[in-house]
Amino acid sequence: MKVLVPVKRVIDYNVKIRVKPDGTGVETHNVKMSMNPFDEIAVEEAVRLREKKVATEVVAVSLGLKACQETLRTAMAIGADRGILVETDADLQPLAVAKALKALVDREEPGLVIMGKQAIDDDSNQTGQMLAALLDWPQGTFASKLEPGDGTIQVTREIDGGLETLELTLPAVTTVDLRLNEPRYATLPNIMKAKKKPLAVMTPADLGVNVAPRLETVTVVEPPQRQAGIKVDSVAALVDKLKTEARVI
Amino acid sequence: MPILVVAEHDATQLKQATLTTLGAAAKLDGPVHVLVMGSGCRTAAEAAAKLPGVETVLLADADAFAHDLAEAMAPPLAALAKSYSHVLAPASTFGKNLMPRVAALLDVAMASDITDIESADTVVRPIYAGNALATVRLTDAVKMMTVRGTAFEPVATEDGNAAVQDLAMAAPEDLRVRFIGRDVSVSERPELGSARVVVAGGRGLQSAENFKMLEALADKLGGAVGATRAAVDAGFVPNDLQVGQTGKVVAPELYIAVGISGAIQHLAGMKDSKVIVAINKDEEAPIFQVSDFGLVADLFKAVPELSAAVD
Asked: Taking phi first (over 0 means left), then psi (-120 to 50 degrees means alpha), and beta for anything else, what does residue B209 get?
């Protein structure tokens, strides 16, 4: 079974982002970029499935600028076998990405798509569900455990009240949560090997997909900043403040 | 055209998040319909009919809708949604799982986790873990969105008198998904997302056992217990207690952060709390930059002392 893993290039999760003064978005120029952490977990899971002989091939896919090739190389350093970049400078939104991924799934015919549940830049949490809808495949979102069976996969999902388990008939889409695994560090030999793995580049037009944005960004602003308050020197002083000043207890 | 609110419920009661989603719907112009999909959920539909501002309650009662499976619910919901200007659902794991699937079937974009409504087509949503706020305009005919519960006032649960209308909705025949089971944490404490007080712990608690201290304090204050990702990853508490960018977003009257350093991913889930108290032995911890009252102290002494003092 082939596994397809979409990966997104985002501002590194350790970077404190800066909103552009003109309100058009967030500064990405000269900012450290990395693979979306959820996608790294997805790649790791796919590679583990190949190591367990459940998967035969892991294909990493990214959409966006040429620089996304670096993100694909990272995925291949973790262990993906090859990469596909759908290159575009369009402002990519979940529905457009889902459509492009559907076109790639139609070509590649994977048995399973594993992807991050959300990207830490736009925090949409939509693309996996949208892809599953377009393919008319079952979806196992927010997965903290995947157990492949015979033509099926059992997905344990993190839901608001606790955990839920579903059994999906393959082919299927699953989106992964933080506790599914801890991604390995790419070793230097694997980083070198990744440079030689095949990486195909195509455009949305090659896939016959229109990626024009459907959500129009009006402005992006900084949220109101919370002011640091005061320090109290004892529990008694804290209780007094909460009772008489804040009146919350 | 009317506005559709997709209710989240447990067959007998509506979830608090449904009430805040109705609060958001009230900011839009148009009659509000509530859709209650489920199995044996007439009681929940009747509860929805009593809510103010609800014109009609649509009840779609079928076995196939028993476990909130998006595969079962999305196709009939997408067919229904075409008659509405807006479709809203809570930004809970229920809404996040279901709504994008509906949006894609309709070929419309969706706004996730909105925190404000500026006009019929323009909404505000946090991006980058709440470190920026994007105002976005929805350009499609059906405007789909999920609503952040802490950002809107819930509607009061009385004085409405809407009609409950039965709706024949059918799930697709071959779902290719089977519900195996749910392992839901049972707690006497209030729901984390809507509690008035939240007592949250981080890695500083060091063990599951030590979280009992926070539970005792939460119980005295009538509050819920929350945790950081680090505390959940370490196995101190179950995943449903996680507060942060990818966990739950809370905005209680009082948030007590115990042994929490204050990573931006955690702050994203609690910085809209009215009063924030931080207890941490590291006076340089970033949590003190957002707290109203900070106490630099050993939590193992301070928390029991605080519990005793609020008797």
From this structure: alpha
Place of tokens 């997805």: A42
* Of the candidates B242, B149, B253, B250, the residue with the CA atom closest to the CA atom of residue B196: B253
Q: Please say whether the beta carbons of B197 and B221 come within 8 A.
A: yes
Taking CB atoms and an 8 Å cutoff, what residues of chain B touch A142?
93, 96-97
Helices within A3-36 (DSSP H only) = none
Strands A162-169 and A152-159, sheet pairing = antiparallel
**Tell me: the pLDDT tens digits for A144-174?**
999 999 999 999 999 998 999 999 999 999 9
**CA gap B291, B261 in Å, rounded:** 11
Task: Output the six-digit token pair for B117.
Answer: 């409504």
What pLDDT score was predicted for residue B311?
A: 75
Rounded to whole angstroms, how far apart are CA atoms B298 and B278? 12
Residue B82 burial (CB < 10 Å; 0-12/13-18/19+)? exposed
**Structure-token pair, residue B220:** 């005295």
Q: How far is CA B257 from the centre of its chain?
A: 20
Locate B26 and state its tokens. 């009230």
What distance in Å separates residue A197's CA from the closest CA in chain B? 32
Tell me the ipTM for this assembly.
0.96
User: Which pLDDT does position B187 carry in this prediction?
Assistant: 86
Within an 8 Å CB–CB cutoff, is residue A41 touching chain B? no
Residues from chain B that touch A154, judged by Cβ atoms under 8 A, are: 180
Alpha-carbon distance of B93 to B6, in angstroms, equals 13
Residue A79 gets the label, from left (phi > 0), alpha (psi -120 to 50) or beta, of: left
pLDDT surpassing 90 at residue B186:
no
Nearest to B293 among A179, A216, A229 (CB): A229
The Cα B186–Cα A12 span in angstroms is 37
- Residue whose token pair is 């933080």: A178
Contact B135, B123 (CB under 8 A): yes
The answer for A 91-120 residues in CB contact with B (under 8 A) is 93-95, 98, 117-118, 120
DSSP state of B188: S
**Domains of chain A (ranges, CATH numbers):** 2-223 (3.40.50.620)
Q: What is the pTM of this model?
A: 0.95
Cβ pair B225, B241 in contact under 8 A: yes
Alpha carbon distance A146, B197 (integer Å): 35
Describe the crossing of helices A68-78 and A37-51 by its angle, rounded to 10 degrees: 40
Quote the distance between the C-alpha of residue A227 and its chain's center.
Answer: 32
Q: Are B114 and B146 in contact (CB under 8 A)?
A: yes
Kindly give the residue spans of alpha helices, DSSP state H, lying in B122-179: none
Interface membership of A178 toward B (CB under 8 Å) = yes
